[in-house]
Amino acid sequence: MKYSPQDFKNDQEVKWCPGCGNYAVLASVQRALPDVCDVLNYARERFVFVSGIGCASRFPYYVNTYGFHGIHGRASAIATGVKVANPSLSVWQVTGDGDALAIGGNHFIHAIRRNIDINIILFNNQIYGLTKGQYSPTSKLGKVTKTSPFGTVEHPFNPGEVVLGARGTFFARSLDVELKLTTEIMVESAKHDGTAVTEILQNCVIFNDGTHAEITDREVRADRTIVLKHGEPMIFGKDRRKGLMLDGLKLKIVTIGDGGITENDILVHDAHEPNPGVHMMLINMQAPDYPVALGVIRAVSDHTYDDNVRDQVAEVQRKATIRNVHDLLHSGVTWKVK
Amino acid sequence: MHKLIDTPDVVIRFSGDSGDGMQLTGTLFADASALMGNDISTFPDFPAEIRAPQGSISGVSGFQVHIGNHKINTPGDFCDVLVAMNPAALRANVHWLKPTSTVILDADTFDERGLKRAGLQTDDIIKELGIEDRNIIFAPITSLTKESLKDSEMDPKLIVRNKNMFALGICYFLFNRSLEHTEKYFKMKFRKKPQFIESNKKVLRDGYNYASNIHAIQNTYVVKPATDLPKGIYRNINGNQAVAWGLIAASEKSGRPLFCGSYPITPATSILEELALRKDLGVKTLQCEDEIAGICTAIGAAFAGNLAVTATSGPGFSLKSEALGLAMITELPLVVVDVQRSGPSTGIPTKTEQADLMQALYGRNGECPIAVMAAHSPSHCFDAAFWAAKLAMEHMMPIILLSEGFVGNGSEPWKIPDVAAYPEIRPPVVAEGDTRYKPFIRDKKRMARRWALAGTPGVEHRLGGLEKNNNGQVSNDPLVHEHMVRERAEKVARVADFIPEQQVIGKDHGDILLVGWGGTFGHLYTALETLQELRINVSLAHFDYINPLPKNTAKIFGKFKKILVCELNSGQFAGYLRMQHQQFTYHQYNKIQGQPFTIEEIVRAVQQLHNPTPQQ
To answer: Which CATH number, 1.10.10.200, 3.40.50.920, 3.30.70.100, 3.50.30.10, labels domain B510-610?
Structure first.
């Protein structure tokens, strides 16, 4: 069946604040799902959207698929249960920086470690929105919020680093305003076997307006971001003259044409490289010194939890002598009372 | 020549350091006895430390087994034979001796060092402990074990570890047990290390022969096969294993695959271990990163159509509270097994208690009634788990099954039931493309909503922790909230229409009604028999269904002059009964020592209530 984005919308009134970045992400996902269905031959009932608590976590109510709005921080665990129970489902977790990285940090890293085949969309607005403006584990050091009136004294997480630290096989990044890129990434995420995490730098108009402005503003976006594509040179900038090269163990920005540098000298993105070294450097690039890396930064093939479970069950069942509960109850030592 | 004494039942307690292998020794004795046709009941009583300091009181591990030629309902209060592998074990268990007990000691450990480690003051332990009149057998078990294996090429340290088999051999002689089953066990256990088969067999036999040659043993005992057991095929089963198997049976009957998400915790862990073994039957287990993930993965699995389970003990149960509320408001089937242990907090992790009852009933935010059941013996865990799963799926709700350390770890022979005779389980699964499906529209009888399994075409819907109306839409409407709260409560209350009436053991009216729940059943039942012999007019109502209570509860209570609620906590069930049926007066007998009741304690409590000591 051919789907359109309309098939993934429902009659629920969307209740995010006007101007919230989440609207754009919702639209991107609703555009991506028909493509996912095309590419992977899925039907709508195979999608399950699972969330925790927070603004982003209302997301499942607005997608016309199976949805489960859980409790704070536990979406990864719920999504894991859905996937293990029925591996044919396409499971999507929608979560925020507080939900995934504070209260749900444990479940988040263990889902990634297991490499269970779920898709995690992490909305990172660097603030607690639903509780009205407290700092989050991704708020910048010194950020003044209601619970840090004199500025935070904590170092923030960089979500991509956490993902790689947990041995993640897929990490991508997009901006809420980049609908097309987000849509493309969603399809790539669905195609990836294993836990696929996509961080979306998202704006909270009410409590953290402009937190990503330094990279998302139209005038600077082309120079302060780089969209990575597997197999293509890492070129960016308004006039596409800037590029990335390796300088020893660091990345450096070069200008094509300066000092004899040509496009051929520019580092080619290899998302499939198992060694996370370069991926980690790309993930850690921060404005204004570096462009912020967008696109699929890492997509490495490895055994998934689901596959391993399936193989193990098949292997055990091949040799099994116990085939039902009756066999089980009569297995081992028994005796007769006459 | 030894005199052979026929005895109806006997209690043996094996005790030693936690590394001495006493749990295995006791289990082998119990298994051999069961195979010889005895009824048995066992009570593993071990410390939380895997290896506490050698020879210390805190490191003493015990395993009590009660065997009989008739139905055995408890592991026994006091022991006829105590095996103590060191002075600490003797000192820790001396209060479990009867005046007529035989005590078998490893003489080699009763040196100055051993006595000191056990905290004894003098060098005459027997006198110091006041047990001069018992039949004490000082057997040099360690040195005889070394002697037994001196020609083997085993490491001397390994040799000494066989001493539990020497002690077991002595007991086998004393109780005329066949060595056959235990030798078979060695063959199976050590099939990859055949040298250990011979060494264990040799030490066991040498222990047996040693016992036959010493003068300290004048009588041996025979406990004939039990004659009052129903005919059939039997096996041994422990409570946690029975929970796992009952759930698997429910999965087979319902056609819903079984998923268990859990985190290891004493004394519930072996439920997860047992389920993890059963990939042959398609059971899925996930050892989670924590207790919360245990229940949350299970909730996810329930949404996707599995029979979902999580097993835990008190501290883990606390962590699951919030998610239990989620399961309740989303009205998904879920079985939560709480194998209770001594609390609060970490408490005494390896000791038994019944103190999570209030938590099971009320420990959640908001109006959140949840059905609660209890298992009353190791083998009853099978039926209890089966029925818990049946109720959860057919009524579309989470259910809490309370077990306890004493039940979960204890074992007994079990007449293998005919699974085919168990009832079908019919969860209200929604068919493909049912256009009328709304998530919270209920059936009239059970008030159960229907289960649209994620992945079913045409019935896509959204569930979650936010309040919703019957159509499944998020709603903050005050009246909708009140309506839904009442409907969910009514659904749980309606379970009373689908559970058996409460049974009374003994006459249905009289002077005193003993009331209990959970793992105290064996003790209360045995106490009842004793009391009836003493011509006290007493009956027993032991509750498996706690929320809701069986419908005839008040009717039963009304027919007795006094009600005595006995439980291993400070009075939680009594308090609950006061709320549910306030017209009655509830007397209490409570014990909070991390130990099961003794029959003697119950008998005394009833006698006291029956014939109170006059006030001076």
So the answer is: 3.40.50.920
Q: Which of B234, B248, B300 sits opposite A78 (nearest CB)?
A: B300
Q: Which two tokens stand for residue A80?
A: 């894991």
| Helix ranges (DSSP H) in chain A | 22-40, 75-85, 97-98, 105-114, 159-165, 179-191, 213-216, 218-224, 277-283, 305-319, 325-329
CB contact under 8 A, A335 and B234: yes
The answer to whether residue B1 scores a pLDDT higher than 70 is no
Q: What is the CATH number of domain B3-222?
A: 3.40.920.10
DSSP assignment letter at A203: -
Residue A201: HSE in the Cβ half-sphere, 13 Å Cα cutoff: 27
Name which of B461, B430, B2 is nearest B212 in CA terms. Answer: B2
Rounded Cα–Cα distance for residues B370 and B379 (Å): 24
The encoded tokens of residue B369 equal 């009634």
Looking up tokens 């009134």 gives A13
DSSP of B306-335, one letter per residue? -EEEEEE-HHHHHHTHHHHHHHHHHT--EE
Question: What residue ranges do the domains of chain B occupy?
Answer: 3-222, 235-421, 510-610
Q: Is B463 on the interface with A (CB under 8 A)?
A: yes
User: What residue ranges do the domains of chain A occupy?
Assistant: 5-211
Q: What is the ipTM score, two decimals?
A: 0.98
Per mean pLDDT, which of B55-64, B187-196, B521-530 is the most reliable?
B521-530
Total residue length of chain A? 338
Interface of B with A in 146-165 (CB under 8 A): none
Q: Which residue in this structure is represented by tokens 């109006």?
A: B367
Q: Determine the Cα–Cα distance for residues B29 and B65; give it in Å rounded to an integer.
A: 8
Whether B235-421 shares its CATH topology with B510-610 is answered: yes
3-state secondary structure B127-175: HHCCCCCCEEEEECHHHHHHHHCCCCCCCHHHHHCCHHHHHHHHHHHHC
pLDDT value at residue B50: 78
Fold of A5-211: Rossmann fold (3.40.50)
Contact between A134 and A208 under an 8 Å Cβ cutoff? The reply is no
* pLDDT tens digit sequence for A40-92: 999 999 999 999 999 999 999 999 999 999 999 999 999 999 999 999 999 99
Q: Answer yes or no: are the C-beta atoms of A197 and A100 closer than 8 Å.
A: no
What the block records as the tokens of B186 is 């060695």
Confidence check: pLDDT of A95 > 90? yes
B411-415 and B258-262 beta bridge pairing: unpaired
**Largest alpha-carbon pair distance within chain A?**
97
Task: Specify the pTM.
Answer: 0.96
Fold (topology level) of B235-421: Rossmann fold (3.40.50)
Query: Which residues pair with residue B412 across a beta bridge?
Result: B237
Spatial distance between the Cα atoms of A176 and A84, rounded to a whole number of angstroms: 30
For testing the chain B interface, which of A333, A336, A338 should be mutated: the one with the most B CBs within 10 Å? Answer: A333
